[in-house]
């Protein structure tokens, strides 16, 4: 009987030993198997690379380097810790991650379908755009200013000494260079017409001079993100002359908010000018955006990221809205250069996305993609 019991106990001990040994082996394999969670590590050797050391710790060799005794290997954290104590290894560090630093597409460019339109192959190439404003930072890495002029007393330079004009210019024409931001029409011929001083003040007489310069220098489009509260026969006469000579003129509607009598400022109030109001990111009228029967189009004007002298910044206003529509107009005109400014204006209005009452929203939100396609259709019809 004792022999039987001894035999039974011996068998149990053998079985338990086998179970224990099997469990330990399974645990070791799980810890060091290729299925275990591993990370990418740099393994730097003091002299010659010895991959066997790394493989002995379950490492998977990913890459060798030519000029350094260095490899990249996939290792568990425990293996990396163990290897770091090896006298043949100088150091071990986890591989890092980098990202391409690209340009940002401001929300307003997307809201007017500017990128969709650009993907149709239009960028404003060949269209001359004059920006009557505080000047433009012509040294900015994200702007390509073809030229300009200053009518502000005391300075012959059209360099921006305020920032407003550069911000407006960036929304229109910031270049597609994988840096900073991109404009609606990144390849237009951009011209700075300085008629506003460093304090954002200017005279109608300087604006009129800017308009005349635009006619003489063959501008196709003039953006005027400026506004005054009083009418001027001379300003209207200059604007009408420019419009009748074939130039498309756009202006900020104003930031005077609501009044039942209307609050559109000059020069946006004149018939020869496209008056542009501002919407927010929900395409609702910005509370500051002027209203009135002269209101023609809407565009983004809240927290707009664009170029500023020496960098980038945010600004809000119908000034920002006007520059979006100017960029869209340039895209449309590139598609069909034979169209007149009257026809371009008609296309912009007919392709706009209706938002509500015309007193508050004009004909709606400018739509670059639809406008460009409508211009292509006009090309075949004409």
Provide a concise account of the structure shown.
The protein is 35% helix and 19% strand.
Q: What is the annotated CATH architecture of the largest domain? A: 3-Layer(aba) Sandwich
CATH superfamily of the largest domain: Peptidase S8/S53 domain
**Residue share in helix:** 25-40%
Counted beta strands = 13
Domain count = 2
Biggest β-sheet strands, sense, barrel:
7 strands, parallel
Q: What's the order of the H and E elements?
A: HEHEEHEHHEEHEHEHEEEEEHHHH
Strand order of the largest sheet: 6-7-5-8-9-10-11
User: Are there runs of 5+ residues with pLDDT below 50, and where?
Assistant: 1-35
| Outline type | elongated
Kindly provide the radius of gyration, computed on alpha-carbon positions and rounded to a whole number of angstroms.
Answer: 33 Å
Number of helices: 12
Beta-strand share of residues: 15-25%
* CATH topology descriptor of the largest domain: Rossmann fold
